[in-house]
Write a structure and sequence with these properties.
By secondary structure, the chain is mainly alpha-helical. The chain contains ten helices and no strands. The chain folds into two domains: 4-124, Hypothetical protein af1432; 129-213, no CATH class.
């Protein structure tokens, strides 16, 4: 018989530290937030097995070890290949976990196949204006370091509109969370060019100063 706390300890000891090698937007704090938000959303669904959900949330971005492009499918493969999970989970449950990890990606283009996938996908949507801009800018500065301030701004705005604006590819799957309201707030900010530019400039200067001091 599996115990939730035993599995949580395994996650904190063996899985969470693996996120330390990823980019700043997908580090330890990110996976811990996704786990916390997923478990909070599970309160609305008594049929959800919290042990299965915990592992799905914990493993959802492990595929980043091989790069971003196929990280969702790589995460699913890592789940299926981790023999340690078989001490707690059946083959069917491992497939459910793997599917949830694979389906979390915002740009996947299809609805997650299971409730577990919808919860993890929703928990991964951290809709907070400052967090969104900081993570997107950190990614841009790391992967396109040759861009100056204006270049980073144009790149970030293109990504913001493609993902978060009306008609963007970001989809929300859980009606009970705060994300729908927060998304509307972010869209209003995105439409306010002056306010959004001010947030960008503040974030850009902070990241640049931190980089110089490190």
């Amino acid at each position: 018989m599996r115990e939730f706390e035993e599995i949580r300890e395994f996650v904190e000891r063996e899985i969470v530290p693996r996120y330390d090698s990823f980019d700043a937007g997908h580090g330890r704090d990110h996976v811990q937030t996704v786990i916390s938000q997923a478990l909070a959303l599970a309160e609305f669904y008594p049929e959800v097995d919290r042990c299965v959900l915990l592992i799905a949330a914990a493993y959802h971005d492990l595929g980043l070890v091989n790069g971003r492009e196929h990280h969702h499918t790589d995460s699913a493969r890592i789940v299926r290949e981790d023999q340690r999970l078989r001490q707690w989970f059946s083959d069917e449950e491992i497939n459910t976990i793997a599917d949830a990890a694979e389906d979390h990606r915002a740009s996947s283009g299809h609805e997650p196949r299971t409730l577990y996938g919808r919860i993890v996908a929703e928990a991964d949507r951290i809709i907070d204006s400052e967090t969104i801009v900081r993570r997107a800018l950190q990614y841009g500065m790391r992967h396109e370091p040759g861009l100056d301030r204006e270049g980073q701004y144009r790149r970030l705005m293109e990504h913001m509109r493609e993902k978060y604006d009306y008609g963007g590819y970001l989809q929300l799957w859980i009606p009970h969370g705060e994300n729908a309201r927060r998304l509307e707030e972010f869209r209003r900010l995105l439409a306010d060019e002056q306010a959004f530019r001010q947030l960008f400039d503040t974030t850009y200067d902070t990241l640049n100063n931190n980089k110089k001091q490190s």
